[in-house]
Amino acid sequence: MRVATFLRLGAALTVVGLAAACAGHGQKSHAPAVNRAAIEAAVDSADRPADDRKLDAARKPKEMLAFFGVAPGMKVLDLFTGSGWYAELEARVAGPTGEVYAQNPPEYLAKWSDKLIAARLAGDRLPTVRRWDRSLDAMELPKAHFDGAIANDVFHDFFWLSKNVDGVIHQIYESVKPGGFVAIVDHAAPAGTGDQFAREVRGQHRIDEALVKQKMLAAGFKLEAESELLRNPDDDRTKPFFAPEMNGKNTDKFALLFRKPR
Description:
Blueprint: E1 2-8, E2 11-17, H1 19-25, H2 36-43, H3 50-53, H4 56-59, H5 61-68, E3 75-78, H6 85-94, E4 99-104, H7 106-112, H8 115-121, E5 129-133, E6 146-152, H9 158-161, H10 165-175, E7 176-187, H11 209-218, E8 222-227, E9 253-259
Parallel strand pairs: 3-4, 3-6, 4-5, 6-7
Antiparallel strand pairs: 1-2, 2-8, 7-9, 8-9
Helix pairs in contact: 2-5, 2-6
């Protein structure tokens, strides 16, 4: 396995070059060129909510949107979108010819309210964002429709929301076009813990990076790139991000970019 390092928008990214596999099957990256202007305009837009902007320093959306490969005209699935923070940015980058499905599990909305996502989309404020209230086990996604799917800080939630995470990943695989991407950013659990820190809604809300890779590769995706941009070596990886002692601190996050073969 050959590993190369390069810079994109100032973020240090580790690209995993599966040299042997690519040579044997003729597989190449199908990532579009980074559209810096579209990303800058989206993040710097004057009408973004003030509360959204407060999270920019920690989430680094300019660098991460470039890492994901979101570009004008794309159709994007934003998994377990929550308030729609990233869905709005994806829609702004994708522009008027793009489309974003903002998926939320109804059982989550029933328990914690849909107030935030409803307010974000009120008055047709984001006309290309389609609210998609569907459970993870039955997302009813169109086949080979999306240029990419993004799970930002939520892949760990799949393990308490579903008893069949492999089935959820299969749905995502089927919904992404050949050559499309899946980006996963999440709170890192200690190495070797698997889904131990992800199974309970009142648990640590973290996931072992190795397990994510294992499941995505088993589903047929190829690991294309990794980013160290959101890493925090001072985090001991054992506390939930909402714990009082984590207030004002960033968790250690991994960022992985997978691609569906053509």
